[in-house]
TrEMBL record:
Task of the protein: Destroys radicals which are normally produced within the cells and which are toxic to biological systems.
Family: Belongs to the iron/manganese superoxide dismutase family.
Protein name listed in UniProt: Superoxide dismutase
GO cellular component, one term: chloroplast nucleoid
GO molecular function list: metal ion binding; superoxide dismutase activity
The Manganese/iron superoxide dismutase N-terminal domain, residue ranges: 1-69
Record domain Manganese/iron superoxide dismutase C-terminal: where: 76-171
EC primary class: oxidoreductase
SUPFAM superfamilies per record: Fe,Mn superoxide dismutase (SOD), C-terminal domain, Fe,Mn superoxide dismutase (SOD), N-terminal domain
Listed InterPro entries: Mn/Fe_SOD, Mn/Fe_SOD_C, Mn/Fe_SOD_N, Mn/Fe_SOD_N_sf, SOD_C_sf
The entry's keywords: Iron, Metal-binding, Oxidoreductase
Record-listed Mn(2+) binding positions: H9, H61, D145
Organism of derivation: Ambrosia artemisiifolia (Common ragweed)
Pfam families: Sod_Fe_C (PF02777), Sod_Fe_N (PF00081)
Length: 187
């Protein structure tokens, strides 16, 4: 990823959303809440409140940075790879679908690999602006920030050199534990 891209999304985007959100919720009841709770409360079942955009963009950017590591890329292994093979046919098919979602998201937004709770499988999604899987009812496993410029090269660099499949694997474990916890609590 180029220095310009990193500085733009870290120094301008992410920082701007944090500062704006902090100003926006200061002194309101949202001020005491966790970022996830602010996102769910301000999404307001689709009747979106002003703080949603900033809160979700902060979360999305954080999740995006944590989807990468130096010397990333390569292939996942273990259970993650088994589920990818089960749900997409092959790792290469997942990559193709993820690239397609990232390159066809109109305007700015995000492409995601998620664990869909209802369908009980891994799914690729794209979302516009700040919308994220937390409000769509699935567990996010991986994301890439997509916007106008130089998309094909940027997407390939992300997948070939930066993506942390370890992070995706541990998110999958956490998602499964959470789903199990909820179904046990329901019994
Ligand atoms: Fe960004």
């Amino acid at each position: 990823m180029s220095k310009e891209t990193l500085e733009y999304h870290w120094g301008k985007h992410h920082r701007g959303y944090v500062n704006n959100l902090n100003k926006q919720i200061e002194g309101t009841e949202l001020d005491e809440k966790s970022l996830e709770s602010i996102i769910l409360a301000s999404y307001n079942n689709g009747d979106i409140l002003p703080s949603f955009n900033n809160a979700a963009q902060v979360w999305n950017h954080e999740f995006f940075w944590e989807s990468m590591k130096p010397g990333g890329g390569g292939k996942p292994s273990g259970e993650l790879l088994e589920l990818i093979n089960r749900d997409f046919g092959s790792f290469e098919a997942l990559i193709q679908e993820f690239k397609l979602a990232a390159s066809t998201q109109f305007g700015s937004g995000w492409a995601w690999l998620v664990n869909d709770i209802d369908e009980k499988k891994l799914v690729v999604l794209k979302s516009s602006n700040a919308i994220n899987p937390l409000v769509l009812g699935s567990y996010p496993l991986l994301t890439i920030d997509v916007w106008e410029n130089l998309r094909p090269d940027y997407i390939s660099t992300f997948l070939d050199k930066l993506v942390s499949w370890d992070a995706v694997s541990s998110r999958l474990k956490a998602a499964k534990a959470s789903i199990e916890g909820k179904s046990n609590a329901g019994n």
